[in-house]
Amino acid sequence: MALGENQYPFETGSLRDPSELMQPERLGALKQTRLSFARLLIEKMAREQWRIDLVEVDVDEAGNGRAVYNIKTPSRLFSFAVQSRQSSDEENTDRIIAESWDLETFLCEGRATPEFIDSQFEELPKVRKGRATPKVLIWSRANRSSRFFDHIVDSLASGHQPDVEFLSQGGYLTRSSGYYGNGLNGTKVFAAMDDDHPLKRPFMAQMLAVYMLRVFGYDLADEMAKARSPDAATLSDDIKRYLGTGNSSGVGIILYMINHPQFVHSWLRAREVALARAKARDPTDDDIETFTRLVEHTETWFDEDESDTERFFHSKDRIAHGLEQALEQVGALYGDSGSDTLWTQLCEWAETNLEAETQEVLHALLIDVYPEVCDGLEDSLTTAETSDVKPEMSLAELESLITSSYQWALDIEMSQSGAQHYIWYRSIENEEPRIGVREEHDYEEYEIDAAIARQVQQLYADLQQAPAADSVAEFLFEHPEHREIVERIQTVHNLPYAEVRANPIDEEFVPLTFISCLKAIWGIQKAHPKSIGWVRGTFFQGAPLREELPDGETSYWAYPSRPDRADYWRDD
Q: HSE of 567 in the Cβ direction (CA atoms, 13 Å)?
């Protein structure tokens, strides 16, 4: 029995084995939890009663104009500014290389003066070459969702609310594919934030920018409708709450998963500890009631979700049906005097009877039944991610680390047909990571080696030819090409959830499994795969509105029910 990071005990062996959790199919099935960064931000904003004020807005009926917000926290003031314009559907590609966007935004510390706002909006269009200042935390660009946004504005201008059934196909008004911070373009470096900084956690600044895009989307729709008609309606709070911010992510973020193994381990381990603590609890009648309410709430959300999962994820109906089966199983298990807790028995049953996605929804809901199981885990999400070669280590010890922690890499057959089908490279013209078919084009010289298993195998082969008593320093003097993989092994070999056990250059590799995992870490609720390597998703659906934060609104919001269509829409 282990206490972990707080007083809630769990069996040390109850954490999932890396050979199970670190498979791409399982990682792609993970769902947002209380430890996802979007939910951590909302919890903090509500607990500390942040206040968000619209201090300036001037937009015309087409959406051209500006808006400025002040964000007041107990210790700091931030500003969020937006420059809005109308662009064509042909221009709205959502790719980071796009030159034209509907919205250009920045989040900065302190009160943004008109002169500072002008300077940033002069630089933002040059996002790949422009310069921010250390006062700026995030640059972002976004597009309006032409289908949903236009429908909302047209409805409001006609004096009535939009069709919520139609909106449930997407669930957002605006979407962005990139949030530039942590030193990019001269923005403030995360490490330079004071320890008491309100956004001193990974991705907190990005999540605040995402939330503010949601806020502006509502205000923009209302302002455009009002400019078109003096009799325009304003968007109802229930519909605002039901909608979130869209996000568009492609294969480029896969390299983040590969290049940040310490961060990946920290979040996954925190999630697994929280789950183990929850499973170890013996439920009371109130706990069963809470779990039942959450599952029924979530089942309804999946039933009402009209977004298309295509062939890449399980249908929402199948997940909803699985949740219904799980509730029936709880009823059958309740009162069982077995040696395992009810929750442990339920999770074991789910492993056999439900798909991975439904299992992970249940795991997330179990953590929601016991919010206190996350106590003490948030601090573990901030990792230094430092590493260095240990030159004094013997090659015998290095080889032992490989065979004990990287046997999975040695077991991948890199010589079989298709095992090195893909190549990762960075486009010089567009400065973005890409994946292509090896030998189809002449870009092997630009290859980014994303295949950890291949690097491990090449290192291991050369180690067999070197004296075991030699040091790593002596070996790297002869084989400098292995320095990065040696450093990686020495740094993360004892972090069980650091390495995804996959070959990202294999022809059977499915990029969206990595993308979906990172989206779960961020806190995206629903995913809409557009292709095998391009996923759209929705942040903050159901989250408190800016007007509710000063009241400390903390009610459960992760799976919001769709507002009643009859109350908010009519045929004219």
A: 8
DSSP 220-280: HHHHHHHHH-TT-----HHHHHH-EEEEEE-GGGHHHHHH-HHHHHHHHHHHHHHHHHHHT
pLDDT tens figures, 101-114? 899 999 999 999 99
Q: What is the mean pLDDT of residues 526-549?
A: 87
Quote the DSSP letter at residue 188. P
Region of 94 on the Ramachandran plot (φ > 0 left; ψ -120 to 50 alpha; else beta): left
Contact of 520 with 39, CB cutoff 8 Å: no
Is a pLDDT exceeding 90 seen at residue 293? yes
Q: Is 534 helix (H, G, I), strand (E, B) or coil?
A: strand
User: Residue 176 contacts by C-beta under 8 Å, 6 or more apart in sequence?
Assistant: 103, 140, 141, 142, 143, 210, 213, 245, 246, 247, 248
Calculate mean pLDDT across residues 164-171: 86
Measure the CA angle with vertex 296, ends 291 and 297; round to 5°.
95
| Mean pLDDT of the residues in the chain | 90
**H or E element at residue 215:** helix 204-228
Whether 6 has a pLDDT exceeding 70, the answer reads no
pLDDT at residue 1 tops 60 = no
Q: What is the mean pLDDT of residues 451-478?
A: 97
Residue 164 neighbours by CB under 8 Å, 6+ apart: 239, 242, 562, 563, 564, 565, 568, 569
The tens digit of pLDDT for each residue in 317-343 reads 899 999 999 999 999 998 776 778 999
> How many Cβ atoms sit within 10 Å of the Cβ of residue 401?
15
Residue 66 has φ and ψ, to the nearest 5°, of -140, 160
User: CA-to-CA distance for 416 and 420, rounded, in angstroms?
Assistant: 8
**Torsion from C-alpha of 108, 111, 114, 117, nearest 10 degrees:** 0
Query: Up-side HSE of residue 159: CA atoms within 13 Å toward CB?
Result: 5
296/314 Cα distance (integer angstroms): 19
Q: Answer positive or negative: Cα dihedral of 484, 490, 496, 501.
A: positive
pLDDT at 89: 59
Q: Facing residues of 560 across strands?
A: none
Cβ proximity of 543 and 564 under 8 Å: no
CA distance 367 to 558: 13
Strand pairing category for 244-249 and 172-181 = parallel
pLDDT score, position 572: 43
Q: For position 168, what pLDDT does the model report?
A: 84
Of 174, 172, 192, the residue nearest 182 (C-alpha): 192
Q: In the structure, what pLDDT confidence band is assigned to residue 370 with cuts at 50, 70 and 90?
A: very high
- CB burial class (10 A; 0-12, 13-18, 19+) of residue 115? exposed
Q: What is the pTM of this model?
A: 0.93
- C-alpha 504/C-alpha 354 separation (Å) is 27
Judge residue 28's burial from the number of C-beta atoms within 10 Å of its C-beta, 0-12 exposed, 13-18 middle, 19 or more buried: buried
Q: For residue 320, which of 305, 340, 331 has the smallest C-alpha distance?
A: 305
